[in-house]
Amino acid sequence: MGVAREILDYARLRRPEKRKISKDDLHQNTLQASMKVPIILMQIFGFFPLDGICGPTYKSLQFRWLSLKLLYSVLSIVGYTFNFVLYCLHLSSHIENILDINALFFHIESIIMAMLFLHLATKWSRFVKQWHNVEIAMKNYEPPRNLKRKISITLIVFLGVALVEHGMMVINRVVLCFKFCHGDWYAAWYEYFANRTFYDVFIVVPYRGWGGALLQFLIVQKTFIWNFVDIFVVLISTCFTVRLKQITIKATSLSKTQVTDVYIWKNIREDYIKLSKLCDSINDHLSWFIMISYATNIYHILSQLFSSLKPKEDVFEKIYFFISFFLLIMRITSVCIFGGGVYDEKAEIAKVLTSVPSSVYNIEVERFITHLATCEMVLTGKNFFRITRNLILQIASAIVSYELVLIQFNLKDFKNKTLSQNASETMRVLRKIRSNTSLTIEQDDPITIATPTFHESIRFALVMAQIFGIMPLYGTTVATTKKLQDIKFEWVSLKMVFALFHIIGTLAAGVFCMLKMALHGFVIDETAIMVFYMMNGFCAIHYIYLAAKWRTILKEWTCVEISMKSYRNAKNVKRINIFTTVVFMFFGIIEHTLYILSAVQTASKCDNFKKHPVEIYFGCSFPHYFTLLSYNHWAAAVVEFSNFLATFTWNFTDLFIILISISLREKFNQISDKIRQSKNVHDKFWKTIREDHLKVSNLTRAMDSHIAAIVLFSFINNIFFLCIQLYNSIK
């Protein structure tokens, strides 16, 4: 009886479901059919210039470079760029506080998102084809229910709230203009377009009624795309989640009916792998949209919270603020919930599989569980963060922290008593919310360097570092055919003296900053200078430690490189590292040159004609020295040179971490490529791959132990100066 029952279950599950699945059902729930209305809406507003949207399959989709839709889209982008340039010209002489740059970010966001949708339109046909192949493979699954209804409701809710929010802003501004002009409609429209909405444009070009209407339409387009980028991420996430839900339902059914047939479990596992590859494709196409979505929403939430500290007397203005803020919260929360649905559904599948009865457990179930545990399926923002529901709490915590910084730095700028009370109360509430295996190698072993090597790829950066007094090594220019004994560190050497001069000069500057603050009082800008020198001094000390260990580090790398000599050559790593070094140093030189020019300009405005201009420059650039010491040209030259060395160390620290990361990543990429290219492999191959992966993992842990302090100094430095720059931007 048991065998007969199993045969019947097998036959039932191998054939289509009892409920007849018509072609209409399949077509109704495809990505092509589900996204038809949203894409048509985008095309109405000048985005996503693609033909064949109303066709039955991906074969009807076509992107044409010569089409009216593309012309419409390009002209819109040109209009956004024109508006952005004129606003920048206006902003350069009229910026007063951080709220004045909100419109600037709005213009930038619109241009970027319009170009991203244009780029996606060129790839949409191939993307839908990938999706279509998965839909065909899963045609015998229970079809998703109410998918088009879910998409319609999402569109109506999001765009409805956005329409109300934008309509209230426009109506409020028009009513104010009408009152200001005492009922004269022509004058009111002139006031609305020329003086209140597009003043940056009509200062440069003469006012025309049709020009104002055209600019107003551009604003409507920008507002639409600003809201739609979140809707787009939500809709794609929803369409993908329902496919995962089909796997969950099928796996649950197999588990409950205790089907033991390996072939059935193999089919469902392979369908899941197809979805996993589709998820990777979604990340490839949508990662930038996700990044832009989160970045813009977080920025505008911070801006809205900051602007809420200003007292609002008008009831209409208060209602608009709450609707606008609600829209922002709804958008970022929806992206987290719907985007996180992919991760949640994957966890549900894992829960079903790990709970199957013992009689059902087989090799395919085991492989399925292993795949779930080792291969991540989640939407990401260019791999900087993963979209899960927990991300909401992380964003909330970050917003509270950033808002506290903004309030603290601007508390003294709030002029009236009401605003100060609002800020203090907000700070009190926010604070309350916030409260709620290693490689062992003898150091003198002669090991010949293999090519291409880590040493060769990073050599250019090391030579440059030694020019500026860090990493005091000898033999860094040796060719790869020589031995590692040629690379050595000497405590008694000219390079070591140069490095000690660099350390002493940098730390001395930090000490002088402390003395100046002790004598003349605390100033936040002086704190930034002190942190700059002290952190770079500590980094320079750690570079001496690294130099002493460098030959051992190279031996660790060489052991891995010899073990992986049969892998493909990592010939591009050296080129990438040199290019990265040149770019970093180039922008570092530009930044330091602009700093010097700024100091020269400040010195030129000084009215003290009794001092030499050079002395004035050094007095303005290095007040921590020359308010405590008497000026002389030799001391000034030493101070300037020491500052230049510290600036190089500041830039080199981030660069060094990046170069190490690129080299380690390449080793893992070599292993991945070897696995992809190998066919008909045996157990010995997988043993070798596993051992090599273990060696690279051990090397990664070893490098982490060597550079952990530098990584910590880098993050502290960068986060601190980001805060200082934000503070200076709102002065």
**How much β-strand is present in the residues?**
under 5%
- For the termini, the CA-CA separation is 83 Å
Number of domains: 2
Approximate shape: flat
The overall average pLDDT, rounded, is 79
Task: Describe what this molecule looks like in 3D.
With 731 residues, the chain is mainly alpha-helical. It folds into 2 domains: 23-388, no CATH class; 454-565 and 621-729, no CATH class. The chain has 23 helices and no strands. It is flat and about 80 Å long. Residues 1-23, 414-427 and 429-450 have low confidence and may be disordered.
Quick overview:
The chain is an all-alpha fold. The protein has helices at residues 2-14, 23-28, 31-34, 36-44, 68-91, 102-137, 147-180, 185-197, 199-202, 209-256, 262-307, 315-353, 363-374, 390-410, 417-435, 454-467, 494-520, 524-563, 571-604, 613-621, 623-626, 633-677, 683-729.
